[in-house]
Design goal:
The chain is an alpha+beta fold and about 190 residues long. The chain has helices at about 1-65, 155-160, and strands at about 70-75, 80-85, 90-100, 105-110, 120-130, 140-145, 165-170, 180-185. The protein has a 5-stranded antiparallel beta sheet with strand order 1-2-3-4-5. Strand 2 (about 80-85) and strand 3 (about 90-100) form a beta hairpin. The longest helix is centred in the first third of the chain and has 64 residues, at about 1-65. The model has no long low-confidence stretch (mean pLDDT about 85).
Amino acid sequence: LHYPLRRQRQMCIRDSIITSTLMVFMLIIIYNLIHFVNVAYDHNRERSDAVQNTATSLWIYDKYISQNMGIETANGYTFSCFTDVDADNIIERTVFTYNTSAHTISYTVYNTDSNRVNTSVKTTGQIAENVWNANYETPLYTYYNDQGNVITDPEKIASDTRQIKVNILTRGPGSTPKTYSNSRTIYLRNRGL
């Protein structure tokens, strides 16, 4: 009579070992799934933050650059132009400054007199942070002529530019950060396309 009970107990022990093994296996799968979802969420949040940071910057660039009346200084990392953004018949000088050590872009708008001499600061502010264009040797500004060709001669940028592509590279946080890019092509309304 005891023999069948012993066999039953052995089956119970074997069943509980198999069940425990399956449970551990399922917990490992669930843990890895949760980890994968968290990594994907963090990546999407980083990308969203980068796009949000640069979208506002690109809007500010669009506001000032599209209405320019003349390009004063222009290269891959520097840009300044004359505008009358608020239509008050006072020409402003807008200067965009890329600080490569602080990884920021700021702008300053100056009121000017009839000789284009700065008379006062109208507004100033930081428009982007965590900018890494110089570190990746990627120009912040690319200039195009009326044919849509890239202008490579620095002497012709001021006179021939009809559109400017502003490309901002940002990096996410962490020890191995990902790089994100956001850009906008700005058409110069007062330059004739």
